[in-house]
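Exercise 3.2. Students should predict the tertiary structure of the chain below and write it as structure tokens, then compare their answer with the key that follows.

Predict this chain's 3D structure.
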Amino acid sequence: AMEEHLSSFVSVAASSCPPRLVFMGRLIAATTFSSVTVSLVFGQLGAVSSCGPLVPAMVGSWLGYTFGLLSFWRIEVRRTQVYAKQYPKLMEHALYSQFTPWVGSRIDKPFNEWLCSGGIGRLSWAVLAAQSCASAVQELQENERQRLIDGYKLADVDDGAS
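Answer key:
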């Protein structure tokens, strides 16, 4: 939930920024928020103990940053896997249209299988590709939602006419 709120905050400028810049902005916002929050909690706990607030606050900052970073990575990997499964051609297009020099040769198996068999390198490039095609995926999802709404409206009209 926190990541979604930060994403919506950062998405105000997303339409005019490159996807990788938006990704880094969201990463910095998420890790900073978690780092500061955990640091404050640990500092307060340290203030009421015999060790004082400074060292616990620094440890809390480190732990909060690490937690925020790992949580952000987990969310982005999950999003990438969903995109790879639901929109493999779009992901492959984004990967090759923007990252050809680094990715290498064409994919010789289904995209999701290629992604899962390639280790952290392929996954990292795929996360960047997912950022690049996120707006197209959002548009596809909005179109699908509209088709569902239209279907319900037609069903209501048909029910009312009978």
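Discussion points: The chain has seven helices and no strands. Residues 54-86 form the longest helix (33 residues).
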